[in-house]
């Protein structure tokens, strides 16, 4: 039997929500000169500066080559620096620059605006319930292979 993406199916709704959220996020972040995914990379570096490229690729769930190219572009833009690890010269670590740290503040502002718009009209109980449901979905998708 062929699966149809009906407007009331979870798959259809998730697809629509994700597309709209990504578009809104891109609009908010474009004012800072950031592109899709760069906000997440800066967020992870703000949480723990000096991570390896491999660790960042795992956290962002992308291929090493993808994150490496992103890092090169962001380094050229002055947002971060890539340095060889002092102990293991085969490993590179990534660090925020001052300009990168300023972008983190802009990212936080954009994410606050996006979250407020996303949850507009929700009660506190609904926000708690949604967070719990999304957390369960995340665990389901992380723990099971398709």
From TrEMBL:
Keyword Membrane: no
Molecular function as annotated in GO: DNA binding; DNA-binding transcription factor activity
Membrane-spanning ranges: none
Statement: the UniProt record of this protein carries the keyword Isomerase: no
All copies of domain HTH marR-type, residue ranges: 7-139
Pfam families in the cross-refs: MarR
Domain of life of the organism encoding this protein: Bacteria
UniProt xrefs under SUPFAM superfamilies: Winged helix' DNA-binding domain
Keywords attached to this entry: DNA-binding, Transcription, Transcription regulation
PANTHER family linked to this entry: TRANSCRIPTIONAL REGULATOR, MARR, TRANSCRIPTIONAL REPRESSOR OF EMRAB OPERON
Protein name: MarR family transcriptional regulator
């Amino acid at each position: 039997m062929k699966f149809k993406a009906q407007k009331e199916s979870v798959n259809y709704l998730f697809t629509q929500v994700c597309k709209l959220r990504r578009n809104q996020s891109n609009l908010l972040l474009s004012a800072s000169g950031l592109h899709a995914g760069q906000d997440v990379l800066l967020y992870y570096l703000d949480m723990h500066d000096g991570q390896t490229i491999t660790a960042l690729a795992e956290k962002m769930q992308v291929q090493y080559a993808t994150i490496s190219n992103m890092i090169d572009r962001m380094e050229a833009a002055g947002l971060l620096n890539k340095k060889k690890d002092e102990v293991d010269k085969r490993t590179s670590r990534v660090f925020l620059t001052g300009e990168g740290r300023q972008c983190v503040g802009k990212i936080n502002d954009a994410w606050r605006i996006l979250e407020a718009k996303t949850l507009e009209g929700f009660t506190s109980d609904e926000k708690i319930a949604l967070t719990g449901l999304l957390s369960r979905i995340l665990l389901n998708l992380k723990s099971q292979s398709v």
